């Protein structure tokens, strides 16, 4: 996310607010932050940032496979 946008997904004036955003808020899309990527890559990144562990990739191999398909 940060490599494509130049910023972390959550920006705030305090560490506590950043932590709150991590727990409660969806990150802005890459396009909303001024970055550019394909819809497929955006989908992979959003899955990596999912709040629930079961919504993330189950392994690095699964992530690598999705990245290969997205590129």
Number of strands: 0
SSE pattern: HHHH
Helix/strand class: mainly alpha
Average residue-wise pLDDT: 95
CATH class: Mainly Alpha
Rg from C-alpha positions? Answer: 13 Å
Total number of domains: 1
- The residue ranges in which pLDDT falls below 50 over 5 or more consecutive positions are none
CATH topology: Transferase(Phosphotransferase), domain 1
In the CATH hierarchy, the architecture is: Orthogonal Bundle
How large is the count of helical segments?
Answer: 4
End-to-end separation: 15 Å
Largest sheet: none
Helix content: 40-55%
Strand content: under 5%
The rough form would be described as globular
Describe the structure.
- There is one protein chain.
- The chain is mostly helical and 71 residues long.
- It has one domain (2-70): Transferase(Phosphotransferase) domain 1 (Transferase(Phosphotransferase), domain 1, Orthogonal Bundle), CATH 1.10.510.10.
- Helix content is 49%, strand content 0%.
- It has helices spanning 2-5, 15-24, 39-48, 60-70.
- Helix 3 runs antiparallel to helix 4 (60-70).
- The two termini are 15 Å apart.
Key descriptive features of the protein:
71 residues; mainly alpha; Transferase(Phosphotransferase), domain 1; 0% strand; globular
